[in-house]
Amino acid sequence: MTGGTGGAADRAVICGIGYRVPDRIVTNAELCARLDTSEDWIVARTGISRRRWVEPGEATSDLAVRAGRAALKSAGGGQIDAVVLATTTPDQRCPATAPEVASRLGLGGVAALDVSAVCTGFLYGLATAAGFIAAGLAERVLMIAAEAFSTLLDPDDRTTLPIFGDGAGAVVLRRGRADEPGAVGPLVLGSDGDRSELITVKAGGARQPFPGPIPDDGSQYFKMRGREVFRQSVERMSAAGTEALSLAGWQLGDVDRVVTHQANARVSAALAERLGLRRDVMAQNIADVGNTAAASIPVLLAQATADGSVEAGHRLLLVAFGGGLTWGATTLTWPHLELHDA
């Protein structure tokens, strides 16, 4: 699916950004003490040296609130008409987590909903927020992507446990013009349900509810068929990114930074090779935070803004791939934004 975000005078424009990662740092050495693996193996396979995990009792909403508060400060305050939360790890199955987040931010009464597209969640959430603005339902939307993905992981699985981290990133979008810095470009979104078995958490839903005790077959944990996911992610992200550039009227040479979902350092390298880009064009933070699923793009954008690797005026290509299967891409020229502590 492709589409813009309204007419020339009716675009969603990013005007604030914030992020939050948990205080707890989990190093490769800590994981190797309990898994049949080595620090060198983890770095070689993933590019990850450490990640952040929530503490017991800390939930997705806690991260979302902190990131959302920072984004609101970055945007200079102002009215918010809707809250969109992209997450695979809601605080509970029912109700959605977004209304609680809105209430805790002092935004009670506004429209609030969860979006679930796994690691493509930020881009699907961005499209949802842009749709609110284009439809005239909102002037300003707080869009948060937050994950406590460590809560889904098998503590004995060396293939998935080292990969994922927890975190939240948020942006504020306002109604604006297509020629403004921060205006979200044409969005490319897609899915392939025929391959849904490649990335799963099978138990706990309507098809396989918990009958009582937690199942002992591992079906309550995140599972991924890594080799096929790798192939699909590079193929789908390169195609979606190329289409988004074409719709925006950009060439690959126009792109200053590619901000991709931080799935795995090898995926980013393979994507750069497929697109014919230098690796230094690929913004990265996976070594320090791991794969934070839906939160990875906004967390990376915030951290790259803070360290200067993404600057105002940079032309960005955003691409992601996740369970579903889902994928997406868009373009934008990065605006000048102030970062604030949550």
Tag the structure with descriptive keywords:
about 350 residues; alpha/beta; Peroxisomal Thiolase, Chain A, domain 1; six-stranded mixed sheet; 9 helices; about 30% helix; about 25% strand; globular; Beta-ketoacyl-[acyl-carrier-protein] synthase III; EC 2.3.1.180
Report on the structure:
It is a single chain. Helix 3 (60-74) crosses helix 4 (98-104) and helix 6 (226-248) crosses helix 7 (265-275). This protein folds into 2 domains: 2-176, Peroxisomal Thiolase, Chain A, domain 1 (3-Layer(aba) Sandwich), CATH 3.40.47; 187-333, Thiolase/Chalcone synthase (Peroxisomal Thiolase, Chain A, domain 1, 3-Layer(aba) Sandwich). It has helices at 28-32, 39-46, 60-74, 98-104, 121-134, 226-248, 265-275, 286-289, 296-307; strands spanning 2-3, 11-20, 24-27, 50-53, 82-86, 111-115, 140-147, 167-176, 187-191, 199-200, 223-224, 257-260, 282-283, 315-322, 326-333. It contains 9 helices and 15 strands. The strands form 4 sheets. A 6-stranded mixed beta sheet has the order 1-9-15-14-12-13, sandwiched between helices. Strands 2-8-7-5-6 form a 5-stranded mixed beta sheet, with helices on both faces. A two-stranded antiparallel sheet has the order 3-4. The longest helix is centred in the C-terminal third of the chain and has 23 residues, at 226-248. The chain has 342 residues and is of the alpha/beta class. It is globular.
